[in-house]
Structure formats: structure tokens, C-alpha cells
Amino acid sequence: MRSADVIREALDNIRRLVADVADGASVDELTVRPNGTGNSPAWLLWHLTRVQDHHVAELAGGEQAWTAQGFADRFDLPFAASATGYGHTSEEVARVRVPAPELVAYHDAVHARSLDFLATLSDADFDRVIDRSWDPPVTLGVRLISVLTDDLQHVGQAAYVRGLTSGTRGRARVGVQDEAVQALIDERAIREVLLRYCRAVDRCDAELLRSCYHEDARDEHGDFVGGRDEFVAYAIGALRSRAAEHGQVTTHLTGNVLIDLDGRFADCESYIRASHAEDRPDHFRVFEFNGRYID
Questions:
Q1: Where are the alpha helices (H) located in the chain, listed in sequence order?
Q2: Could you write out the three-class secondary structure of 10-72?
Q3: pLDDT in tens, 93-137
Q4: What is the pLDDT of residues 192-250, one digit of tens each?
């Protein structure tokens, strides 16, 4: 087997993994983010393909498929055409919302260009130095191995996240076969969201509070009814205002938590006790609230 054949076999396997991760997934499923802040499968698949496209085009001395074949226009992402995802912020990761067929089509196009380039190489080409700014200098073979390493790392991460959120088929991907074990994992993740919510409101942490909600979530909270970002602005604004005006601090505690799991969906009822303490110049008082969160 020639050197190019080894790289080709690895790229073929990566292509199959990319297609498997994207298979049957909706845009919402591809944009799920662990703990609300991790990299989504959509971003991971886009990023690994952008890096492969960039490196292979540079080695081949041609234009990237991203621009040459119109994928930059089709994806219509709010980034420069040269962006590959390196250095992206959490907010930028969230902006990558692309249908699965588009992600697969882009990767297929880059895969085809990669194989075309490999077909031009001899074994001797893999030892050719292409970048002397590193010590030791980088050869063409080392650069291609770095592409494979990056691809495998990110497609594995994407498969793991998809496995956490895609029902029985996904659970098989990450090796969780036992329904009882999966239920414990799911319940723990839901309880963690509840605890993050309590910490967020008590510490007036807007970003942490935002991470507790899906992008299209709706909150009915007393007199407030609205979307995620509106609720974060409403709640954090009110808490900060009361802290500044009345020295108010809050403590939110969850009690009984009942979670009803149904595949990829869950209903959750949580008892809540909230204490709002005000330290005014003329008196100190504490308001106690008891209620339920229904999610």
C-alpha cells in the first residue's frame, strides 16, 4: 500500500463518519450544545471540513471548494469567507445552523478534491518540506496527517454529542445500551440545568442563565411571558436593580424533582424555594417564595 493509499483510506472512513453523524438529523439536533456552551455537531462538521478544504487547497495550489463551488453563498454564515472556525467564540459557534444535507454535500466536495490531489502524489512527495517556519520543518506528509488528526478528533466529538441527544440509535453510537443507565445520565443532565439556573439567578450571571435555555425556548414566569433572551434581560435586570437599590440578595433552592423521560423528550416538575433578603438602612427583611418549575 502506497502512502497516498493510507491517507485515502483514512479520508474515506472520515467521510462515512461525517455522513453517519448527519444522517436524519434536523437543524435543531445538529445545533445541540453540551451544557449549552460546548461545540455543536453542526459547527464541528463545518469546522473540520473547512480546515481540510483550506489545507488541501493550499497544498494543491488551487481555490477552496468553499468559494469555488459556491458553498460560502449557500451556507450564508455571518463570517468572512476565509473563516475556518479557529478562534470562534461561543456566540459564533451558535451561528452555524445548517441543514444536514448541506454539511454532507460540502464535505463530499472537499473529499473529492482531496482524493484528486492524492492521486497526483508519489511516495517521495510526502517528504517534501512545505513549511520551514516550524522546528522541525513541516513536510507534506505531516500536514496531511494533521488534517486527519483534526478530522478524527472533531467527527468523534460530533458523534458523541449526537449520541447524547438522538434516542436509541444515538445511544448505541456512544456505547450506552442499557436503558436504566441512559435514564440516569439523562436525569443527571436535567438536574444540572436546574442547578445552573439557580446559580445563574443568584449570581446575576446572564450568560449562565442563557445557557439553561434552548434558543427558541419560551418562559412563563409570573407576569413575564416571552423568549429566552427577553427573559434573561428581564430577570437579570430586575435582580441587579433590586440589589443596587435595596441591597437585595437571593437564594434559590430546588427540592423534589420529578422527571418523566420519553425518548428524546422529558417533562420535569421541580419544587422551588426562593429567599429574597433586603438589607435596607432602616430594617432587614426576607421574602420567602414557594412554588414549582414546570419544564
A1: 3-22, 27-30, 41-60, 65-68, 71-75, 90-94, 100-118, 140-165, 167-173, 179-202, 206-210, 228-246
A2: HHHHHHHHHHHHHCCCCHHHHCCCHHHCCCCHHHHHHHHHHHHHHHHHHHHCCCCHHHHCCHH
A3: 999 999 999 999 999 999 999 999 999 999 999 999 999 998 899
A4: 999 999 999 898 999 999 999 988 999 998 889 999 999 999 989 888 888 888 778 88
The per-residue pLDDT for range 47-89, each reduced to its tens digit, is 999 999 999 999 999 999 999 999 999 999 999 999 999 999 9
Amino acid letter at 255? G
In angstroms, the Cα distances linking 28 to 14, 175, 248 are 23, 23, 38
Are 160 and 170 in contact by the 8 Å Cβ rule? The answer is no
CB atoms within 10 A of CB 249: 17
Q: What would the grid cell of residue 184 be?
A: 440516569
pLDDT, position 167:
52
pLDDT tens across 131-159, in order?
A: 999 889 999 999 999 999 999 999 999 99
C-alpha cell at 291: 412554588
Helix/strand/coil for 202 = helix
Instruction: Report the C-alpha dihedral over residues 119, 120, 124, 127, rounded to 10 degrees.
Output: -90
**Cell 500536514, residue?**
143
Q: How many CB atoms lie within 10 A of CB 4?
A: 20
Burial class for 204, CB neighbours closer than 10 Å (0-12, 13-18, 19+) = middle
Handedness of CA 78, 38, 54, 116 (dihedral sign): negative
Find the helix or strand (DSSP H, E) in which 286 lies: strand 284-294
DSSP 8-state class, residue 287 = E
